[in-house]
Write a structure and sequence with these properties.
There is one protein chain. The protein has an 8-stranded mixed barrel. The protein is an alpha+beta fold. It has 2 helices and 8 strands, in the order αββαββββββ. The chain is globular and about 45 Å long. Helices cover 25% and strands 30% of the residues. β7 and β8 form a beta hairpin. The longest helix is centred in the N-terminal third of the chain and has 51 residues. It holds the Pfam family Sortase. Keywords: Hydrolase, Membrane, Transmembrane, Transmembrane helix. It comes from Streptomyces polyrhachis. InterPro entries: Sortase (IPR005754), Sortase_Class_E (IPR053465), Sortase_dom-sf (IPR023365), Sortase_E (IPR042003).
Length: 220
């Protein structure tokens, strides 16, 4: 009788474990589907705005996003919006930091463009960040300019409280002078949020966007 009870309990626990694992997998998959759909719609709206809005002076309107990130070794294009809260990042976008240190913009003459995105679930736009290697291109597309960066350093694991990686001259990157940098951050290890994975790039050139939006050679 005892053996039968133990056997039944063991089978029940295994079944519960399998069901929970399937639920988690389904949840991650479905959040990716929903978030990517929403991100696609937002990206289309931003491009429509670029095509239809006349040039006029005034403050930059960043509500719909400031552009698109392209990293061939990691993912397809990623819409970039303001902020890094779950409300923003859960929509399958990358967000630029506004705190604890404010990000520079790609068009600034100096500074560090600092971005974050999810590694798992909700679009998981930085899921393959570990595939970015030294020398790989990171391209930021805005309405009128392609900003081409070259990866020069990575930090596979650091404290989530390490804000030094976001400084204008990012700590731990090996750079000691002001320049035009880009920093990508996400959670690590996968399926956790204990630490941060960091990738750094440095601007190597810019290209004006032509009428056909022909991408730079790094994206062809």
């Amino acid at each position: 009788m005892l053996a039968a009870t133990v056997s039944f309990t063991g089978e029940l626990l295994i079944t519960v474990g399998v069901v929970l694992a399937l639920f988690v997998a389904y949840s991650l998959w479905w959040t990716n589907v929903e978030a990517n759909r929403e991100a696609g719609r937002m990206g289309d709206r931003l491009r429509d705005t670029w095509q239809g809005a006349p040039e006029k002076p005034g403050a930059l309107d960043t509500r719909g996003g400031i552009g698109f990130l392209h990293v061939p070794s990691m993912a397809d294009e990623v819409l970039v919006r303001a902020g890094t809260s779950p409300k923003i990042l859960n929509k399958a976008v990358a967000g630029y930091y506004r705190d604890p240190l404010a990000s520079a913009m790609p068009w600034d003459k100096q500074g560090n463009v600092t971005l974050a995105a999810h590694r798992d679930g909700h679009g998981a736009k930085f899921h393959n960040i570990h595939k970015i290697g030294i020398g790989d291109p990171i391209v930021f597309e805005t309405k009128d300019t392609w900003y081409v960066y070259k990866t020069f350093a990575t930090l596979p694991s650091t404290s989530k409280f390490n804000v030094g990686v976001l400084k204008p001259v990012p700590e731990g990157s090996g750079r000691a002078r002001a320049g035009r940098y880009i920093t990508l951050t996400t959670c690590t290890p996968m399926y956790t949020s204990n630490y941060r994975y960091v990738v750094w790039g440095e601007l190597v050139r810019t290209e004006k966007v032509d009428a056909r939006r022909t991408p730079p050679r790094e994206l062809r």
